[in-house]
Design goal:
single chain; alpha+beta; two-stranded antiparallel sheet; 2 helices; 2 strands; binds zinc ion
Length: 69
């Protein structure tokens, strides 16, 4: 029995763990480094980036009083 790694798309098809799109429907699919079978696609990365930016913006604290020494 011969096993070929990386060539059998059927068994090696990656999917975004967030939106469940297969890797051939996205531009980039990034695999989690430490967690097997967990990936995120570029679209979800974009979405996460937006959410992070939104969160940062909404959490922006009122300017603290300038530290005067
Ligand atoms: Zn995705």
């Amino acid at each position: 029995m011969e096993t070929t790694y990386g060539l059998t798309k059927e068994s090696q098809v990656g999917r975004c763990s967030f939106c469940d799109k297969p890797d051939d429907q996205v531009i980039v699919l990034i695999n989690a480094i430490k967690v097997p079978k967990v990936s995120i696609c570029n679209e979800c990365v974009d979405m996460c980036n937006e959410m992070v930016m939104e969160t940062i913006r909404s959490r922006r604290k009122p300017r603290p009083s300038s530290p005067t020494p």
